[in-house]
Amino acid sequence: MNSEQGTTRTEAPAEEDRPTRPASGRPHCPPELIPLRDRVERFVRERVMPCEPVLDGGGPDARRALRTLQQEAKAAGLWALPLPAEHGGQGLPLADYAHLAEAEGASDHGPAALGSAPLLDVLMLDRHATTAVREGLVRRLVTGDLRTCYAMTEPETPGTDPAQAATRAEAGPDGTWTLHGRKWFISGAGDADLVTVLARTGGTDGDEELSLLLVPTTAPGFRVLRELPVLGAGGQWEIALDGVTVPGDHLIGARGQALRIAGERLGLGRTLRCLRWLGQAERAFDLMCARARTRTRRSGPLADHQLVQQLVFDSLLALRTTRPLVHEAVAELAAGGSARLETGLAKVAAARMLQQVTDAAIQVHGAAGLGPDTALPALFRTGRTARLLDGPDELHISSVARRVLRDHPADPAVTSCPAPPAR
């Protein structure tokens, strides 16, 4: 089985013509951040990536390996870089953290190993949780002593329309809330201590009285039903809420405000995913280039063949045209904007780009790209799922197009060509 490509050979460029910086075109990094970015990149490459086979396997061995990496990250001063300083993080603002997020996200396990994985939950609770919850839980999330996850999607309702959520939370006379329902495709639910659940707190189906509640996984009635392998890989789960009761102060934000709060975390969450997908695509690109230069056939290195060069060029073009879109979204969010158009464009472009680049890298590797000896199968799996995560491509395409058409002037500045002068 071999699909390594090649046809016409071309001469390799002279050594002095080769670039001295990564060809994939990183954005300008402020000089003061370069040493930190390099340390993050080295930690992920030298410590996290070698542990991926164990971390991917789940179970006690994976948990022990992750704890070891987290301790090493803390000792190296790389822990919780973007998390709020007042809760024990390092307080790096988004505009700065974006320069590190690609390197951190080159491995799926990088954010967890370096303590940035709970960023969305920490920010959400810091902004919207009650004082008791904020003071009791947020710092423990930052230190890594507690693990959280977010449960919105349900088996029988479309994830693109949360207003149809069937999970219900009923208010008790003592101020508590009791939840009934099912949620699925929840990242990390198997090891989580807390789950943020989107539930209907009033009204009927279609009505938007939806709220967010924080549910301890030790509460009676909470059950992990099963793990849901995604294209053969674990990490996603289905849960049941069978009469789970939580205190009234576990309501996050005001009653009926779930969609507004979810919108806050989705914009940042999508942008963080895009940054991490860029890091994973660059990893696949590097693997492809290394394979092309070192794999030799009787006719010479794969790098000398035009079809391989086409794959390299197209992958580089995808990386370089996607990266500015992602950093536009970062800049808009950092400035306090909603960035809905920017994150929609970035999310679709980054998902497509990751799938394209990893597919090209697999093609250059031939059969070796399908097996367990490289990270390419996992990277390709992420690329394919990326087109559904945080809303399918179709949702973002329609949303961006509607926004553009709504805001576009009805009367274009030039409606017709001027008549030619009379002779």
Automatic annotation (TrEMBL):
Top-rank taxon = Bacteria
What InterPro entries does its record include?
A: Acyl-CoA_dehydrogenase (IPR050741), Acyl-CoA_Oxase/DH_mid-dom (IPR006091), Acyl-CoA_Oxase/DH_mid-dom_sf (IPR046373), AcylCo_DH-like_C (IPR036250), AcylCo_DH/oxidase_C (IPR009075), AcylCoA_DH/ox_N (IPR013786), AcylCoA_DH/ox_N_sf (IPR037069), AcylCoA_DH/oxidase_NM_dom_sf (IPR009100)
* Cofactor list: FAD
Q: Where is the Acyl-CoA oxidase/dehydrogenase middle domain?
A: 149-237
Instruction: List, for all copies, the residue spans of the domain called Acyl-CoA dehydrogenase/oxidase C-terminal.
Output: 260-405
Instruction: Pinpoint the Acyl-CoA dehydrogenase/oxidase N-terminal domain residues.
Output: 35-145
Positions of the UniProt region annotated as Disordered: 1-33
Pfam families, per database record: Acyl-CoA_dh_1, Acyl-CoA_dh_M, Acyl-CoA_dh_N
User: Could you tell me where the Polar residues compositional bias lies?
Assistant: 1-10
Q: Which UniProt keywords apply?
A: FAD, Flavoprotein, Oxidoreductase
The entry's family comment says: Belongs to the acyl-CoA dehydrogenase family.
| PANTHER family linked | ACYL-COA DEHYDROGENASE FAMILY MEMBER 11, MEDIUM-CHAIN SPECIFIC ACYL-COA DEHYDROGENASE, MITOCHONDRIAL-RELATED
Q: What is known about its subunit structure?
A: Homodimer.
Descriptive protein name: Acyl-CoA dehydrogenase
The source organism is Streptomyces kronopolitis
